[in-house]
TrEMBL record:
Membrane-protein topology: Multi-pass membrane protein
Function: Mechanosensitive channel that participates in the regulation of osmotic pressure changes within the cell, opening in response to stretch forces in the membrane lipid bilayer, without the need for other proteins. Contributes to normal resistance to hypoosmotic shock. Forms an ion channel of 1.0 nanosiemens conductance with a slight preference for anions.
Protein's name in the database: Small-conductance mechanosensitive channel
Keywords (A to Z) from UniProt: Cell inner membrane, Cell membrane, Ion channel, Ion transport, Membrane, Transmembrane, Transmembrane helix, Transport
Cellular component per GO, a single term: plasma membrane
Protein family (similarity comment): Belongs to the MscS (TC 1.A.23) family.
PROSITE patterns cross-referenced by the UniProt entry: CNMP_BINDING_3 (PS50042)
Subcellular location: Cell inner membrane
Acetylation as UniProt keyword: no
Residues that span the membrane, as ranges: 12-31, 43-62, 77-100, 112-130
Gene Ontology molecular function, alphabetical: mechanosensitive monoatomic ion channel activity
Statement: the UniProt record of this protein carries the keyword Transport: yes
């Protein structure tokens, strides 16, 4: 046993004070790179203070003629000082020096090396304190067997965590799936691996479980893209190719955040069942943390696209008998809807010359075509023989010239009409229209407008004049001024007559 004597502040006491100061300086360095530093700082100060109290108490025991107790206290203080010094040096090396050299060893290596160093220092100190270790060595086999048997689960966790990090099968930052648990690996310790789910929960999984189970590493830093599947059903009366084209066109023309721009979304048929066709949208997610929100955005966009094509998702098959009251209510709702459409058409200059009966016929033929924000309603250069009446929401008109950035023409509000040139002449779209907000449009097809022009061909002159007026904004944006207004009007009139077969 060590013996002590001398003044209150001996070299051992000075060493303990120096350890506390070294601990403080080290923690200041660690605070900038490790979020756990404030907690370690407090723990080290408490432990260092305890060692200092033990050392000072040993001198008090000497004054009380308790030299054996004083020697025990001093030995315990110096043992604690050594452990504290080892921990400070280890943390400084693993969390300050090595990262500065761009080396990032696994955290479990830090834990294991520190534990081994603690054990070696304890054995060395026991030897310096005069303890004979020969008896301990002779019984080491028995002790090792007992410890190994009682701590087999703990040893399995330690070896499992070490193996996981040494072979890089599971890394910090990886997104993994284990049974019904999935999340991002945030920590790998000597006993467990911690996952952070998208819901913010912290899941702790023993390392031995990871070693024995099938782990799906579905995303990591070098290859973060994750393929997602969004399923839906449509009745089998709709041709699959029509559904696939509608969904793929809508998703590929619309920018949806967190979808990889390098791999276009695709729609496939996966099954036929109970009179319905099962489809799936497959896309590549660039950030697994936004899986549910991106799935929702994909559903919103392809549902809106299906609605625009007068398609709907499959409904459960049910036999429902409607009474006269429900039929009457449905008819009243239909009449109210037609009245709203008719009032909207009456405000459009293009239809100002139509009779009330003709407006009523057009109102019945309009189709509801919803769009969601950022949907492309019409694309410049495309050919489509229909007209849109914006019922609610806003849209923006853009002119695109080859080799030049696109230019903003106008912002359309509820009540505005666009696409009339395509309806009346069959010409390609002169500009691109994008939904600025969620919008509802009424669509008028050529077939529904053709009867009016054949019955009243004199309307063609009025329509040609209106088209000439509406085209002035695009002419101003083009590099060339275009033909004179009279020539344009004559050209439009000729196109209208030829398109509708008027004499």
């Amino acid at each position: 046993m060590l013996t002590i004597d001398g003044p209150w502040i001996n070299p051992w006491h000075a060493g303990l004070v120096a350890a506390v100061l070294l601990c403080s300086v080290t923690q200041l360095l660690l605070t900038r790179s490790d979020p756990d530093s404030p907690h370690m700082f407090r723990h080290h100060l408490l432990f260092g203070g305890l060692c200092l109290i033990l050392s000072l108490s040993s001198k008090l025991m000497i004054d009380l003629a308790q030299r054996q107790a004083a020697s025990l206290l001093e030995s315990a203080a110096m043992l604690g000082f050594g452990l504290l010094l080892i921990r400070i040096l280890g943390l400084t090396a693993f969390r300050v020096l090595l990262p500065a050299l761009r080396m990032h060893p696994p955290r479990i290596m830090e834990d294991i090396l520190l534990v081994i160093t603690y054990i070696v220092w304890t054995l060395v100190w026991l030897r310096l304190a005069g303890l004979d270790l020969s008896g301990l060595v002779t019984t080491s086999a028995v002790i090792t067997g007992v410890v190994a048997f009682s701590m087999q689960e703990t040893l399995g966790n330690i070896l499992g965590g070490l193996a996981l990090q040494l072979d890089n099968s599971v890394r910090i930052g990886d997104w993994i799936r284990l049974d019904d648990v999935r999340g991002q690996v945030v920590e790998v310790h000597w006993r467990h691996t911690a996952l952070r789910t998208n819901n913010g929960n912290l899941i702790v999984i023993p390392n031995s479980v990871l070693m024995k189970s099938k782990v799906d590493v579905y995303s990591r830093a070098g290859k973060p893209e994750l393929r997602r599947w969004v399923h839906f059903w449509v009745e089998d009366g709709v041709p699959p190719r029509e559904v696939i084209n509608t969904v793929e066109t809508a998703l590929r023309q619309t920018h949806i955040e967190h979808i990889s721009p390098l791999k276009a979304p695709e729609c496939i048929v996966t099954d036929y069942r109970d009179g319905n066709i099962h489809y799936a949208v497959r896309y590549w997610l660039s950030n697994p943390a936004h899986d549910d929100g991106t799935d929702s955005a994909v559903r919103v966009h392809f549902y809106s696209a299906l609605q625009r094509q007068n398609l709907s998702l499959a409904h459960p098959c049910m036999d429902i008998r409607l009474n006269r009251e429900s039929e009457r209510a449905a008819k009243l709702r239909q009449l109210a809807e037609i009245a709203v459409r008719k009032a909207a058409l009456a405000k459009v200059k293009l239809f100002a010359g139509l009779t009330d009966e003709e407006l009523g016929g057009l109102a019945q033929s309009l189709r509801n075509t919803p769009f969601v924000k950022d949907d492309i309603v019409t694309r410049q250069g495309a050919v489509a023989h229909w007209l849109y009446l914006l019922a609610s929401g806003e849209a923006e008109v853009w002119y695109e010239a080859e080799g030049q950035p696109r230019r903003h023409c106008a912002t359309l509000a509820a009540g505005d009409v666009f696409g009339e040139i395509g309806l009346l002449t069959g010409a390609p779209r002169g500009a691109t229209v994008v939904a600025k907000t969620d919008a509802l449009c009424y669509r008028l097809d050529k077939e529904n407008f053709e009867n009016i022009l054949h019955a009243r061909p004199e309307l063609a002159d009025e329509f040609a004049a209106i088209l000439c007026e509406r085209n002035l904004v695009l002419d101003a944006l083009r590099t060339d001024a275009g033909p004179a207004a009279q020539v344009q009007q004559a050209n439009y009139l000729s196109s209208i007559r030829r398109f509708f077969g008027l004499k």
